[in-house]
Amino acid sequence: MFDARTSESECLDDLSLEPAFAAQSYRFMRRVNRFLGGTAAVVRFFQAHTHPGKTARVLDLGGGACDIPLAVSRKLNRSGPRVVFTCLETNPTALDIARKHIAAAGDPFVSIVQEDAFEYQPAAAFDFAVGSMFFHHFSDDRILKLLLYLRPFVTKGFFLNDLYRSPLHHQLCRLAVLASAPVIRHDALVSIRRAFTANDLLTLLPKLAPSSLVVQRCWFFRITAAILFAEAAQ
Fold first, then answer.
1. Quick one: which H or E segment has residue 228?
2. Could you give the CA distance from residue 176 to residue 18 in angstroms, rounded to a whole number?
3. Which domains does the chain have, with CATH numbers?
């Protein structure tokens, strides 16, 4: 089951999913990001690859509830804009939640638009693009197609922040979501079966011809890939 990524669908992939169920899923993911390393991984990346006094424009793919961009902005933008996020999302429930969170935070450095990443045509290039628990929703072919499509719009690099696929992770997750709603239980376990190993990413991502590629296992069954191009890798 874990030798290769599954092609099973998650409930959240269906944009017609009942809004109440979708909202449950986004609340669950916010907790996972906050307490199990997802937010911290993105903060570390931008701490390493941005600098105070110089603003980086960031494209956030599948922004969801925008919890990670808002957390990064709170951490890094205390003395002025260091990272400015444009988040893309297609799920109407996520868009509604994210807009409320952005408004409540009063954060001028995070915005969200209803756009399909595979068709998005930005008016200006971004420095970086980041996807958090986003890429596992797609096959390897679709991931590569998307990254190649976005490459002309992204000057410095991509950051993939996702789940690590393993039998142990699957079993621990099964126990952790026993008391959760059926939609959450289903999607959490499918997400792990759709997730990545280091070998998956090290096989796929060099096709982008990056100047630097660093794939890392992170705390609590998370995996990241920093794909940097010449300007950022210097």
1. strand 222-228
2. 24
3. 11-233 (3.40.50.150)
